[in-house]
Design goal:
- The structure is a homodimer of 465-residue chains.
- The first copy, chain A, is built from 13 helices and 25 strands.
- In chain A, the strands form six sheets. Chain A has an eleven-stranded mixed beta sheet with strand order 3-7-8-14-11-10-9-22-25-21-20.
- The interface between A and B is large, with 50 and 50 residues.
- β5 of chain A pairs antiparallel with β5 of chain B.
């Protein structure tokens, strides 16, 4: 299980060994969420709920099934999805009059209802989100959390009075993302996709991309400005202050269980998972190191330590299994618990606790007296350093070039004039996709790598995991 | 909107007026969870999670789709469901080799995997649950939360070494239920269903039934003992201490969004919802009663009150809308907020707050100084009295008879010898279903209402909502 040698194999192995998922379900790409994997997903969902609730988004839940005629209203959208949806054609023993599809995403489920909810400017902005499973008939090779056919999915959908208010929403989404990504210790880039790679029906799409140690990119989610592209076919109109009827401008923000995959892929190592403290089901595990004749004393001290940490709000587990400490170390390293607290006879005598960090392996003695503060500080430090290391690695794995010859397996940054024909040629020559132009206006001064025209806009190229 | 006059109409109207659901989705029986309805459902889900986590059940999440061949393994089960499942027959533009169905319940999704998870006696008991949506092609008239085609669903699934351990689980389920029902202020009866009415594949089924003011029964959920009925066809075996391979005994416990319907139907009145304090999104709402020239002072006092209640953990809302207090009273009564706190100039002068209970309409002045305790005590009192009133109503609406002539619209209790033929005749003659025999061994001494044979077992008859 060597991450550096065969990243893809390492990933497949680790999600099973750490028991995050069970891939033996009899439908390809539809996996079972085991208790451990589901807890991690729920932690991530709860972070998302917290930030979207705090910004006055309302959680809703729309039906799974969408009638074919509703789905077909936005032409580019159906064209983008119709080769990958699952169709319900029968109920009981009878064929249905109107075929129903399993949502691949919920625009076409929500927008006929939004047309009823939005009446006047007082109803705007309408800010909603839902966390549901979506379905895509993925024909490429599936991979746990990364490319599956039943996808645990977050999607926010908003309606605004005009383009500028929708743009404000996109910027709010960027702010929300920056808070969330910190909790997950994930570095990312906001990249505006090319026109031929944007979401079907979108005015523009911003991809949220991180980089894996293998040099491949992984899209964590995307944020879309729809303008009036959906509100026109779905007739979502409001009466403005002057009594005029206008179409709303819409945005969406989508993320998925792929975040679990990203956390595994970016942070994990040859010993197993390395979970960010905010994501970890158990932030710390206490391993009593029992010595002959002192068993009772050490056990009691371990239980006291547990009670004190628990009551201070730290998610802590006390491992009292009757196995050697080494077995426990192995298990909790595999599971990615950020901090191991060892407590033995000598620790107790010195009024200390031994701290072992999962991310670095660093071992240190801390005062038992200040243990709550020490644990909290250490968890905060771990989170900061995990993000810093991943960011550094992302930078190191990004290469700016002025020629497409002999590209290494890294994220590639180069110049593009913006012409579609040059874009396609860049993709062909580099055998990579353009994942986009940076949203935050990176400084760049170079030439289009195909036509040589001077340009101030860099593009990023990558192979997807 | 008169509950006593036309209960069915009252129910349909109130779920829409209180904005718990939007029934305008273009598929019959598949409704939209609005923000307010979804919050109530989430509160109920969180109660369920809390109790099942506390009893060492593990939350999992299994795929939605089930291959036809897995579904067909338990004969009684497929016979019970095959007229009401939705079939996925195509993916993208192609027909599927094996048809997939949308889970109507998850036995046939989970049990092939349980066969892999359970190996030895050390793996038992296996206690799991999930909260997912299920799908049934309901052909009867649909009704929000009560009878729908996409059902928000809770299901626990457990595996045990033997029948007795599975029986212990059933009793634990009864205990869990009694805690939950108290939070929802719902009285109920545990009734063992007849053999011809049990869950398809079950050894026995215990229905959890409440009674509505209309005299009709509403099933809140059910608990099943499967014995080896599923473990044999799905091959869920373990090696016991002696090295012998034995089939597990299984149980399940199911509840659904119908709980939201029950809370609405049992507690609501002509003014709207009456939410139990544990279920209510807002447990208390503060309405400042502004007087001319004193606006600022009252507003500030209201905000102070809000801060104090909020920080003590009470879910409180401050209604600062620029509308008359009467409009606010109307709105929050419709929404079912348990406690209204009015704060005006005179209250402030006397250092008081006016409390108005939603359930009784009782109005009283309480000391501002002790407001946190007063609110908490009042909420506890409301919960107790809501349950007591509903229990009293259930008792009053239950009638013991020794003849099936001229039955009123109530829950009927009578004698049954236990013979299936007499049972069917009882159902025909009474034009009601036998909902079952009491699990808790009610005292009864009478005769079978059909054959006259003496019996110690009462049965309950009811029409379902």
């Amino acid at each position: 299980m060597k991450k550096a040698e065969d990243f893809s194999e390492w990933y497949n192995e680790i999600v099973e060994k750490a028991n995050l998922t069970d891939k033996r379900y009899p439908i390809k790409g539809m996996n079972v969420w085991t208790p451990y994997g589901w807890k991690i997903m729920q932690a991530i969902d709860s972070h998302i709920r917290q930030e979207f609730d705090a910004t006055n988004h309302q959680e809703v839940c729309f039906p799974l099934l969408i009638p074919e005629d509703q789905f077909a209203k936005e032409k580019a959208h159906i064209k983008g999805f119709d080769s990958e949806v699952f169709w319900v054609t029968h109920a009981g023993l009878n064929p249905l009059d109107v075929k129903l599809l399993l949502r691949p995403t919920s625009e076409t489920a929500m927008y006929p209802i939004f047309a009823l909810w939005v009446r006047s400017h007082a109803d705007l902005p309408l800010k909603t989100y839902q966390i549901v499973n979506t379905f895509r008939y993925e024909t490429k090779q599936t991979r746990a959390f990364i490319r599956v056919r039943e996808i645990h999915f977050f999607e926010s959908h908003t309606c605004h009075a005009d383009f500028e208010d929708a743009e404000k929403q996109v910027r709010e989404d960027f702010d929300i993302l920056s808070i969330l990504a910190k909790k997950w210790c994930l570095p990312y880039k906001l990249l505006k996709r090319t026109d031929w790679d944007k979401f079907p029906g979108a005015h523009y799409t911003v991809g949220i991309d991180t980089l894996l140690p293998s040099g491949r990119s992984l899209q964590l989610g995307s944020i879309h400005q729809y303008m009036e592209n959906f509100s026109r076919p779905y007739d979502i109109k409001y009466e403005d202050e002057k009594g005029e009827h206008r179409y709303v401008h819409q945005t969406t923000f989508g993320m998925s269980e792929r975040l679990v995959g990203a956390v595994v892929a970016v942070h994990g190592d040859d010993k197993g998972l390395v979970l960010p403290p905010d994501v970890a089901t158990n932030q710390a595990v206490i391993v009593p190191v029992l010595a002959k004749g002192e068993t009772e004393k050490v056990s009691k001290a371990a239980r006291d330590l547990y009670d004190e940490l628990k009551s201070s709000g730290i998610r802590v587990h006390l491992d009292e299994r009757d196995v050697r400490p080494g077995v426990k170390y192995y298990d909790w390293e595999l599971k990615g618990v950020p901090l191991r607290l060892e407590l033995g006879k000598r620790d107790i005598e010195k009024d200390k606790v031994t701290f072992v960090r999962r991310d670095t392996g660093d071992k240190s003695l801390r005062d038992r007296k200040h243990v709550v503060k020490e644990v909290k500080d250490t968890l905060a430090l771990i989170a900061n350093e995990m993000l810093a290391r991943a960011s550094k690695e992302m930078t190191a794995n990004t290469l700016t070039v002025d020629s497409l010859a002999n590209l290494p397996e890294k994220m590639i940054r180069t110049g593009w004039c913006g012409e579609e024909s040059c874009g396609h040629e860049i993709e062909t020559k580099s055998d990579r996709n353009i994942i986009g132009t940076p949203v935050d206006g990176e400084h760049f001064s170079g030439n289009c790598v195909v036509c040589g025209k001077p340009t101030k806009t860099p593009i990023y190229l990558a192979r997807a995991m």
